[in-house]
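User: Thanks for the earlier help. One more: Disease resistance protein RPP5 isoform X1. Can you show the sequence and predicted structure together?

Assistant: Of course, both are below.
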Amino acid sequence: MASSSSSSATPAPKFDVFLSFRGQDTRKNIVSHLYAALCRKGLYTYKDDEEMEKGDSIPDELIKAINTSRFFIVVISEKYDNSYWCLEELRAIMEVAAVKRKEDISVLIPIFYRVKPGSINRENLTAAFSAMKHPPMEETAMIDEWEKTLSQLANLASYLFSNLVDEAAMIEKVVEKISERRFAEEVRDHPNLVGMRSHMEGLASLLEMESEDEVRIIGISGMEGVGKTTIADYLYRQFSSRFSEHCFIYDVKSICRSTGQSYLEQHFLSEILRIKPKRLARKGAGSHSIKERLRNRKVFAVLDNVDKVEQIHGLAKDKSWFGPGSRVIIITRDKGLLDTCGVEIVYPVKCLSSKDALQMFKQIVFKGTDPPACFEQLLTRVSRLAYGLPSAIIRYSSLCDWHTKTEAEWEKLVSRYEESPHKNIVDILKSSYAELHQVDKLAFLYVACLFNGADIKRVSDLLDDGSESRIQVLVEKSLVDISPQGCINMNTLVENMGRETVVEESDRTPTKQRILWEPRRIYSVLRDESGTRKIEGLALPMCKMPYVLEIERRSFRKMYSVKFLKFHTRNKTSKLQLSPTARLPDMLKLLHWDAYPSRALPSEFLSGFLVELTLRCSRLQFLSKTNLDLRKLKRLDVSESKELKELPDLSGANQLEELVVEGCKSLTFLKDLPQSLNSLNAHGCNSLETVSLPSNHSIKHIDLSDCSPLNNDQELITHFLTQGQHDQETLLRFACIPQTTMPSYLDNCCPRLSPNLMGFSAGIMVACSGPYHLKFSESSYSWNCEEFSINLKPQLYPDLDRVEEEAMNYLVIIQVLSSINNNQPRSFLLELPSRFNSPPVEIRETRVHMFH
């Protein structure tokens, strides 16, 4: 009889899942789908692809696989119980599972595939016994044993697959259950593996281990301390046993720096082939040997902390260097390095969520036991200090001996860390900064101190005169991410490191600090007129200023190098006042001053370097009483400046791309607009009577909603639709204007479809009733090319000034200029915020004009 190992010591697991089934019933249906789903989740699954119909016992290989599996899935099908080998395999599984259950591990999942649990056919068991040459006196005992085993299996929680069941959904449930248990077990023993399940699932889909024919080279990228090596180490332990040749080369960067590239290549070859290192005769001999000796071998290699192109070229330059089925993992902070070397498949590692960070912190500090209830809030606060960075969580946990201090002592310590991160935490990240070129270091410091969370296009314009190269370098070095909305996201710990670097560079002297952001320090520097030419930027949250301060003529007199001035507030009042004789810095590229307190910019203001001018909620009546040099200006935002009567001549601002005058209720006309303008937002300018667009304009987005004097301006609509530039393969234009009737241009003309169809203009009449108004940003609409549908997602706001019940009518125009299929929009979808249960908005009419 077959038997599982009788050793009391549980063997080290090799397989995540052992799959038991009757091949002729299930191999090509449920089992194949189940196996594929398990592999996609990154679960290493044993599936015997050979029919065991020879010999009178289970092969030792199978017994070993059962003993070294964590979980078991047994698929009971119609012919399962008339197979001697299946029944013996099940008995061996039940023995191992019984031991594991004593260790409080739920390990066995039965699946009854188109049979009922407990429907044991003793005749089938007898037939199974008869197929083997066993002494007749063993028949009753063996059949009774099988019957008992099947009965025990039927009593376990199981999954029933019938003809009425959605097999795909049921398989997903089974796999999800196994996956949850698998990673819960790992995390219990290894706290730093919190979140590993999602990483393994993501990497499994990229690795495609079940694909034996192709070679895959995969990059793992992410910021310093995010856990790249930990993830790869776990991956290596999971999969390396499948490969005859495998190795994990830790810290390639250090090996290469200390011993050279030739030794690195020699070391790699000796590790993966388990041979004694040999002295290389010439430069490049190592990479040649790697290519020659591994090209027919199935290898699994992990290269950790790679930082140079030559390292990749020397060890794994091309897929042809390795045999079919090989997998090579390259770990680096530098995604640009992977791009340069042609590594197309990259897995980006992100920081942990708040929930996972807290779980990891608790697991490390309390070894899996529940922490005292009084520490719960303190634990949450400490875990947040790490901002999801695993290495910081580990470092903070090592600093905190929760078993020797009182709650009051910990409150004091946590408060101190909240004020200033521990130096060790900042040091984790400094190596990434140290490796940057000088110009990229400067861009990094600007982002950390001034532009974290800002739009990448705007920041690139300010730093690189339109080139995104500097920010792209920071992305490639894993120091920042770009959100789907196009905003720069820098982890708070990285931001803190950047700011600490700025402070250290100045010898902790505010007057010599490259960028100032602390309100009290800025207040002192401006009040005392003590700034120096070392200062290049100020970012002042005015609501945190200790007192009101007036900017005098001499406030910036020594700050010759200031390029970025950000005085921001959420309030509509400013704690900064401006004396009549005040003078602003001469080299400003950015002037951002919320609630600007004066009627105009200073008369001596030099604007020739301005790239962005933002004066929201200001007291402006005129932008300037003198001519402004706006040749470099790309963005002008004077929104909610309710007293602003007119703008200067903007025709000379030939780089201006975005103009925001939203809520400027005294503004009566917009003219002399430059051809370069891409976006115009004049929502709520309810005195605006005239908008003159330039001929051959570049405007792609124009919002004139709630500008009632412009109602039914046919000339404006026609000019917008017919006079714009079209120098792109596909162009999407949007306009929203007050309108009660469809313009004649949108005549629902649909000529006979032809191969020369070049686009369409769609008009959508939207009505909004009650005390609400609609706003359309550039993310409020989209055109789906594949489905040929238009989706509107306006923002809906309460309007306290509007009491009339008559509906406000908006004409939304979307124009697509592109070579398109012989078709027209099939649907118009209006999507509103979920917080409005009964939104007072409806689509009243739609028209489409096709043209070629």
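User: Great, one quick takeaway?

Assistant: The two ends are 81 Å apart (CA to CA).
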